[in-house]
Protein 1
Amino acid sequence: METRVQKAVGLHQSGCNCAQAVLCAYGDLFGLDEKQAYKIAEGFGSGMGGMGETCGAVAAAFMLIGLKNSNGAIGDKATRPDTYEQVRELAGAFKEEAGSVICRELKGTTGLPVYPCSKCIETAARLFENHLKSIG
């Protein structure tokens, strides 16, 4: 049986960008069908629309944290501090493994070792999955 982490990597190999791969692999857990997830995440690939900023796979994991944690009540900020904390924790764990959350740094364009997109997707998906298990 294919794991969701493997599904995310496979989606990338099939043509999804990094953000789409992660969001599509987990979106159904939060009521998103694959087409919705694909469309939502499209602008987040290659470091936010190809700008080399925050890794799209990481950004998708952040979106998933929001889907899991937010109460969805417009204007209600009650869940925001906890969501932000969870995002910072996942970002810290990703940075500890990969060395950065910045796409251009992960791609090695700043002199740091290369951390390929497939590895970013695998790492972000695995960290999100571990996060889900830890919060129940």
Protein 2
Amino acid sequence: MPAYVILLRAVNVGSTGKLPMADFRRVLAGVGCINIETYIQSGNAVVDAKWSAASLTKMVAAALEKQMSAPVPVIVRTHDELERAIAANLFAAEAAADGARVHAVFLSGVPSAAKAAGLEQIVTKYPARRDRYHLAGDTLYLHLPDGAADSKFTAQTVDRVLGVTATARNWNTVLKLHGMSAR
């Protein structure tokens, strides 16, 4: 049975989308996941499930929408997919120096080249920021030397520009989830 990393967007951030991790674990158990572990309060879980990633994504999204009375974006990755994402990080040196300033933005699909070109507009529109990015398939890597708080690479902006759903995790969290999913 494969291990999956489940990443939610916009839960327990600010005053919206409150989802206690105990409730999240119950939702995951309710759809048939086992060996459920959550990590911090921002919607990260590692589970074992017998379904494909696509099926699991749909089942978890439907169960969470019922629980939260609103849609909750869900991205699912396997341990191997997370390992490939770690290996493809062009900002590895920066991540080793400060994992809080490097982020992996997990995407629900691979954006077209035409859509991907729109990322440059985010950088050029805000020249005072030193944000850098690299898109590799369904993962967008960000180096945010000025911090994430004021970055214009928000999930909503990335969604709009790329035409896919996005959720970001800092590099420390990516590495922790990778370790948790090594079963």
Protein 3
Amino acid sequence: MNVFVRLLAALVLTMVLSSLPSSAADLPDGVKVGDVAPDFSLLNVDGKQLVLHEQTTVKGLIVVFTCNHCPYSVKYEDRINALDAKYREMGYAVVAINPNDTVAVPEDAYSKMIERARTKKFTFPYLIDATQNVAKAYGARRTPHVFVLSRQKNNFRVEYIGAIDDAAEGTIGEKFVENAIDQLIAGKAPQTTFTKAVGCTIKWKKD
């Protein structure tokens, strides 16, 4: 009987593991602070492509991997809009990217992204990472997951990775992204360069 139970447990575990996206088990580490930010060209909700290296008029970008359906992402939508409103004129604009598998999560489909951007009056580009290659290159794991970039001569450098603030639950104590950008604007390196992103796991495609 014990042998049977062990065999059954092994079979169930095999079935569970086989149902997981194979890419989720073998994701690249992504970028680290100080690295050159991977370039990308992604479709915006306005129907146009946004190319990272073409963003030559900004001092930096607040790249947020987010989506429609995740309750954490929904909770942070107004804060992301507020970040763009506060820092766009200072040269640090928000760029949001939806990395989820839209087959697994139809609510994150491109058409739904357009609706969401209109409903919430997003003031920033909302891009779809249809291949998920950008999320993998950056090492995004959750929604929301933020990468603050500063523009160099010919590329962008990663300055901060992690959460927007410390209030995924509860009241805001420390505003990680705002602190990092304020320090960059002051000509200083951010004191806090990495925090743990808190949110929903990215829904990876099955190979």
